[in-house]
Amino acid sequence: MKRRSVIIGLGATAAGGGAIATGAFDTASAERDATVALADDASSLLSLTPLDDEFAFVDDSGELALVFDEVEGGGTGFGSGTVYEVGEVFQVSNQGTEDLGLFATVDDGAIGDAEFALTVDGEELGPDPTVELDVGEAVAVGVEVDAGDDPTDGEVAITIGVGDGPIEDPGDGPGDAPTEFVDQLMFDSTASLLAENGYLPSEAIAVAAEPTAQSTDADGNDDATTYPDDEPLPLMAVDQNLPVVAFGFPFAQDDGVTFGQYGNEEVLLNVLDEYADSETVLWDEGHGQFYDLASHSGFEGYAEENGYDVAATTDLESDLLGPASAIVITSPSESFSGSEITALDDFADAGGLIVLMDQSDFDNFDATDNLNALASGIDTQIRFNDNQVIDSENNAGSDFVPTTTDLDTENYPGLFADREGLGLELDPNEEYDVEIVSVADGDTADVEFSEGQVESIRILGIDTPETGDTEERLQEYEGIDDAQALKDKGDEATTYAENQLEVGSTVTLSFDENEGLRGNFGRLLGFLELPNGDVYNAKAVEDGWARVYDSGLANHDAYWDLERAARDAGDGIWEISDVEATPVVGDEPVDELFVPFAASVATADGAIAGDRVPVAAEGGDPLVGVDEANNVALLGGPLPAESFESDENDEGLSTEPYGNYVFLTNLIDAVSADGREGSVVIDGGHGQFAADYALSAEDAAYFQRYLEGFAIEFDGKNDFDDDLGRDLAEARAVIVTAPDDEFGSDEVAAIEDFRDDGGAVILASAGAGTDDAADARDNLDALAADLGSDLRTGDAVTDEENNLGGPENPTTTNFDTDFDLFGAYGDGDDGGDGGSSVDLAVDELVADPEGDQTEDEYVSFVNQGDETVDLDGYVVDDEVDNSYTFSGVSADPGATITLYTGSGNDTDDTVYWGRGSPVWNNGGDTVFVTDPDGNTVVEYSY
Q1: Which end of the chain has the least Cβ crowding within 10 Å, N or C?
Q2: Which ranges of 501-595 does DSSP label H, i.e. alpha helix?
Q3: Which residues of 394-421 are buried (b: 16+ CB within 10 A; e: fewer)?
Q4: In this predicted model, which residue has the larger pLDDT, 474 or 723?
Q5: In this structure, what DSSP letter does residue 803 have?
Q6: DSSP-assigned states of every residue in 549-565
């Protein structure tokens, strides 16, 4: 670092810079003194102030004098063999306009073997700039003398200088240790903040969202204010003229913020410490607030432990006249009266702190207009946006719960100081003895740490069936299709856990470096080792009471082996599993596909030849590429993504019209060697589980259920160069979706061996809306190259007109039917085990006819196959088990047979149910057709 100028000298009056000689430190003299003065060219940069009047004062000439007439321990002089330390003698303050870095040089060669030094926070101030002194900041300087064995009379020359900062934070005041700040804040369903006429000035923004965050108009009212390009989204602001602090959401509410996990409670308490000057804090409950004081009970208790009296008020005009020094106001569903606003305005003018908290506009619950009317009335510069901030990368489990580390600790160090005594500081590399407090179910327990804090543990790497009223996804449990029976097994799994994790017993808690400390809902993710040495996580899987949760778990593949053995034995929950009885679901010819987060397919040399592209976007961009020579295919997006299933989203999306599962299964068989059988394996060990644009087995359970209909197993594997988990020799395909982590050379070699043996390798890219997936796409391309394939990921593909849930998810019917990939899989040469080969489909359904609701209601079926279907004994059902059985009718190839709900005379192509009331719900229903063996041949929802 460049030294810029000599600033001060220790000793005689400094003049013109240069080294300044001190008076002699005589070993026999009773007085040791020196003066310190600013050089003429430095008077505008630094100031000096004595801190300890026993050793420092300003003399008659206005210079700082350091006096050592009695040293530590009594007596006079510096005795041989001793060290003298005075920690805070004088203060150096930066009164300039830029940050500085302090250094000191010492020439003590004239005093024998004695050594003299200046110190900051006990550390020697050395010859290089090692202490940062920010603008307006001060640091205490101490003196240390090591007299040595033979101190002599002589002179010490010391120079203090400055260089360009920053160096090291000297703390908030003279002699203070560097400040430690909270690491991260969480904003659950938050709006962002504005100024009265646009964007807040940077000095008012205390916290901003990460650059990955976006502003959205969640209520769809087109009332969200946009932000300038490349400007951060403010989530916490401090008014520059009034004692007003604002947050984008109820900042420390119990349901959203797990107490102690983030720094929210600390920051809110720091706000009170910084701006409130009495113990009484009011919480407004007089304007229909949902987030009342009870919703912040954790913070209330924390504040009261730290000396505050937090009280709810419904009459703020009267209560503001009392001893209160702060009031908290959350989003008000009822407006403030003029007199109330006047009272708050007077309160702020008198120095009272007003804390305002908004919330996102999701479902228009935010009441932003009322909050902005209040903000205008008290004349704060802060306003609230009618929007919702989302962040797909930095969040606490959901996009609408962004987390951020963008805290302005330079301008607001006191607001972000890390306070002692809050939360539980855990080291993920350590183990902790904890006591079992309670068991919620087979994979969740509460434990108490030695410090007395109780934490909920999500038992890592496993999943047991839900209990009570919570719905379960049957698709996750191979061969189980009976919801009530699985619920019963969930109750048994809870009993098993209670027996293993006995309340009051001590277990050892440890963590997995691949998973982090906490998951959704703030629960710790851990292993629990029982007193007998067994690890409960593994024991529950081994005994059949849990399935493996397909995450990035380090020992995932070993756990999968335990599950496989338990399934084969029918232990625990697997007693009710029967994969062979799983019906074929949704196996129909492919009429249309959708490609999530689509990217085009290219080659290493550029465009891909059309004869290698079975599927393109409606605009012509290639969406699937095939490399038959290397048994490799590249998809433009993760086709089996289950988030588009109707039961998995609240946006009304459905995969029902699309043939993604059928097409992908056909593609696997087409790319693998002829006759290759076995399971389908999906990679989950390279960051896919936590990425929105990629899939682990946990994210494709519906595809798993489709494959089960054909007795094809579907499993996750995290490590390809070991023998644990699914043996690749038994598989027909490996699916790899955009991997955040690169594949190691040994893993690549294992996949190459699998491919050389005839296995298919299906690679899936991701494009639109996933700029953070760029590295993952590069990793996918690298794997393709290692496999000798020229297939590569291309640019994002969007379609404003044809899409599912957004232009980044294009839909397409642009197929090259020269590829044998679009028929029902059950009719393929390699498929059909356990299912029906009948190719029957709904041709038309009229649920709300213009005429009579019963007589004119009908559904028609078309035979899309090549052979006549004898429909005798086939059953038609709706969602509430209204049933009709065909009798004495058949459908030739291409023929249609129509089933009317009302009465009439049957013919060869028209039959009548004979009901007196309608069957098909006008608002939506599902048509099921099963053959006489119970196989589902049609499942059509509308």
Answers
A1: N
A2: 536-542, 556-569
A3: bbbeebbbbbbebbbeeebbebbbebee
A4: 474
A5: B
A6: P-SS-TTHHHHHHHHHH
The pLDDT > 90 percentage for the chain reads 51
The answer to whether the CB of 486 falls within 8 A of the CB of 576 is: yes
Mean pLDDT of 409-435: 82
Measure the N-to-C terminal CA separation of the chain; round to a whole number of Å: 71
The per-residue pLDDT for range 687-703, each reduced to its tens digit, is 888 787 899 998 999 99
- Return d(Cα 498, Cα 928) in angstroms, integer: 41
User: Rounded mean pLDDT of 917-925?
Assistant: 90
Nearby residues of 480 by Cβ (< 8 Å), 6 or more positions away: 474, 486, 573, 576, 577
Other Cβ atoms less than 10 A from the Cβ of 83: the count is 12
Q: Put residue 174 in one of left, alpha, beta given phi > 0 → left and psi -120 to 50 → alpha.
A: beta
Per-residue confidence (pLDDT) for residue 175, from 0 to 100: 43
Query: pLDDT tens digit string along 844-892?
Result: 999 999 999 999 999 999 998 888 899 999 999 998 889 999 998 999 9
Name, in order, each residue with C-beta under 8 angstroms of 512's C-beta and a sequence gap of 6 or more.
460, 461, 525, 527, 553, 554
Question: Residue 282: pLDDT above 70?
Answer: yes
> At residue 122, does pLDDT exceed 70?
yes
3-state SS track over 347-415? HHHCCCEEEEECCCCHHHCCCHHHHHHHHHHCCCCEEECCCEEECCCCECCCCCCEEECEECCCCCCCC
Residue 931: helix, strand or coil by DSSP?
coil
The answer to whether 108 and 114 are in contact (CB under 8 A) is yes
In degrees, to the nearest 5, what angle opens at C-alpha 271 toward C-alphas 266 and 275?
A: 150
Is the pTM for the entire model greater than 0.85?
no
Taking only Cα atoms into account, the Rg of the chain, rounded to an integer number of angstroms, comes to: 36
Residue tagged 């009056």 (tokens): 13
Q: Would you tell me how many other CB atoms lie within 10 Å of the CB of residue 96?
A: 16
Q: Which helix (H) or strand (E) holds 154?
A: none
Q: What does the CA dihedral 249, 254, 258, 259 come to, rounded to 10 degrees?
A: 110
- Four-CA torsion 478, 483, 488, 490, nearest 10 degrees: 60
Q: Could you give the 3-state DSSP secondary structure of residue 663?
A: helix
pLDDT at 163: 57
Gap between the Cα atoms of 411 and 827, Å rounded: 69
Say which residues have a Cβ less than 8 Å from residue 879's Cβ, sequence separation at least 6.
Answer: 921, 925, 926
Determine the Cα–Cα distance for residues 592 and 545; give it in Å rounded to an integer.
Answer: 40
Burial (CB < 10 A; 0-12, 13-18, 19+), residue 16, is: exposed
pLDDT digits (tens, 9 = 90+) for 714-726: 999 988 887 776 7
Q: Which of 336-340, 367-371, 520-524, 775-779 has the lowest mean pLDDT?
A: 520-524
Burial of 322 (0-12, 13-18, 19+ CB in 10 A): exposed
**Please, which residues bridge with residue 37 across strands?**
9
At residue 780 the predicted structure's pLDDT band, cuts being 50, 70 and 90, is very high
Sheet holding 936-941, edge to edge: 883-885, 875-877, 926-930, 936-941
pLDDT of 179-217, one tens digit each? 688 889 999 989 999 998 889 999 999 999 999 999 988
User: If residue 131 lies in a helix (H) or strand (E), which one and from where to where?
Assistant: strand 131-133
Paired tokens of 432: 């902790």
Summarize the confidence of residues 533-554 as an average pLDDT: 93
- φ, ψ of residue 609 in degrees (nearest 5): -65, 140
Of 564, 756, 560, nearest in space to 676 by CA: 756
Residue type, 667: L
Q: Quote the tokens at residue 780.
A: 């996918």
CB atoms within 10 A of CB 209: 24
Contact yes or no for 287/335 (Cβ under 8 A)? yes
354: confidence class by pLDDT, cuts 50, 70, 90: very high
